[in-house]
Amino acid sequence: MPRLLALVVVLAAVVAGLLIPVTDAVAAPAVIVSPTTVNPGGSFTVSGTGCGGPDQAPPNTEEHPWRVWVGMGWINGTVPRTAPDGSWSVTLRTDATHPTGSGFVVAHCDRPGARVFSYEQVRLFIMPATPPPVAAPVPAPVTPPAPPPVARPTVPRSSAPAPASPPSAAPRTTTPTTPPSSAAPSTSPASPGPSAACTDCGRLAAEEPLEAGEQLSLSWTGFQPGEQVTVVMRSEPVTLGTFTTDATGTVTAALQLPDEAEAGAHTLTFSGPLSGDLVVLPFRVAAADGAAASAAGSAAEATSDDGALTPWLVGGGLAALLLGAGGVALHRRRTAPGV
Question: Biased-composition ranges for Low complexity (predicted)?
Answer without folding.
Answer: 152-162, 170-197
